[in-house]
TrEMBL record:
Nucleus among keywords: no
Pfam families according to UniProt: DAHP_synth_1
Record-stated family: Belongs to the class-I DAHP synthase family.
Reaction it catalyzes: D-erythrose 4-phosphate + phosphoenolpyruvate + H2O = 7-phospho-2-dehydro-3-deoxy-D-arabino-heptonate + phosphate
GO molecular function: 3-deoxy-7-phosphoheptulonate synthase activity
Annotated keywords: Amino-acid biosynthesis, Aromatic amino acid biosynthesis, Transferase
Enzyme Commission number, as recorded: 2.5.1.54
InterPro entries, per database record: Aldolase_TIM (IPR013785), DAHP1/KDSA (IPR006218), DAHP_synth_1 (IPR006219)
Entry protein name: Phospho-2-dehydro-3-deoxyheptonate aldolase
Its biological purpose: Stereospecific condensation of phosphoenolpyruvate (PEP) and D-erythrose-4-phosphate (E4P) giving rise to 3-deoxy-D-arabino-heptulosonate-7-phosphate (DAHP).
Residue ranges of every copy of the DAHP synthetase I/KDSA domain listed in the record: 32-320
Keyword Transferase: yes
Coiled coil segments of this chain: none
């Protein structure tokens, strides 16, 4: 039996040329939305984290049908998060803990997670990913269209350096306290060239040299209080302008903006849709936590349901589809203004 503590190299896990052309095209499309060259609305939607790859691929099939239906108005990107940041403790995601039991078989996790991402990308959907551990980024980055640096890591220099090197648009979330300046500083840092240690394709530590990421942008995810309203968005745009950054904001309808209550996400989306309808072109995207079934389950509860989140509670698919329809209608109205 192989030593589970010896990781394969990124090269051994392998790049996948079958989806490379589509991933490059998707990245260009998202960059065009962020840059105002594409009038559609970016919608990053999907499970809080992937715990059952087969069931998440079922979700991907549903989302792909909806993405095609609303393609004239929305650029739909599926959340395919395999790492889960934790304030103190808890399940850290399929990549670092694929058996969901704390054993930390990362070698199996990178193979299983990589296989899932390639299959998900093969559906034709662009994929979103939160980069939690910079050491693992090289295993997954080539199949990711849109990346995120989360509220707990946005102040981290290694994550800012990583964002400057990653070849896709990166959303910087405001920190857990709700402050925007940390994320604004992160966007500025990611836009600059850096030299920093990282993992090469052959597994060796090497010096990575970045040229800067021109598509880093702000994600409002709330804090102790929400920050999705029109006044909050205006404040965020003013902060970006003050730092000499492009006026573009993605707003997360979950997390602090819904008080971590998945049932509040439709109300947040309705408010954001109204802002889009009113012609706010700097509100370029919306994030929604969604999965097959409403709610969540505890890992310690026994046999797990494949269709129910084991981390944050999500909206079920039947409650997600109307939100996509609402956002598509809002984007269509804005484009006609």
């Amino acid at each position: 039996m192989p030593d589970q503590d010896t990781l394969p190299t990124p090269a051994e896990v392998g790049a996948d040329r079958s989806v490379a052309e589509a991933v490059a095209r998707h990245r260009g499309t998202v960059a065009d939305v962020l840059g105002g060259r594409d009038s559609r609305l970016l919608v990053v939607v999907g499970p809080c984290s992937v715990h059952d790859p087969a069931a998440t691929l079922d979700y991907a099939g549903l989302l792909k049908d909806a993405a095609d239906r609303f393609a004239d108005d929305l650029v739909v990107v599926m959340r395919a998060y395999l790492e889960k940041p934790r304030t103190v403790a808890g399940w850290t995601g399929l990549l670092p803990d694929p058996t969901l039991d704390g054993k930390g078989d990362i070698a199996t996790g990178v193979r299983r997670g990589r296989s899932f991402l390639v299959e998900a990308a093969a559906t034709g959907l662009p994929l979103a990913y939160e980069f939690v551990d910079p050491m693992l980024a090289h295993y997954v980055a080539d199949v990711v269209t849109w990346g995120a640096v989360g509220a707990r890591t946005v102040a981290s220099q290694p994550h800012r350096h990583l964002a400057s090197w990653l070849p896709m648009p990166i959303g910087m979330k405001n920190c857990v306290s709700g402050r925007l300046d940390t994320a604004v500083d992160a966007i500025r840092a990611a836009g600059l060239p850096h030299a920093f240690p990282g993992v090469a394709a052959d597994g060796r530590l090497t010096t990575l040299r970045s040229t800067g990421n021109a598509d880093a942008h702000l994600v409002l995810r709330g804090g102790p209080t929400p920050n999705y309203g029109a006044a909050h968005v205006a404040d965020a745009l003013a902060a970006l302008a003050g730092a000499g950054l492009p006026p573009r904001v993605v707003v997360d309808a979950s997390h602090g903006n819904s008080g971590k209550d998945h049932r509040r996400q439709p109300g947040v989306v309705a408010d954001l849709a109204a802002q889009v309808e009113d012609g706010n072109r700097a509100l370029v995207g919306v994030m929604v936590e969604s999965y097959l079934a409403d709610g969540r389950q505890d890992l310690a509860a026994g046999r797990l349901r494949p269709d129910l989140s084991v981390t944050d509670a999500c909206l079920g698919w039947d409650n997600t589809l109307p939100l996509l329809r609402t956002l598509a209608a809002a984007a269509r109205t804005r484009a006609r203004r």
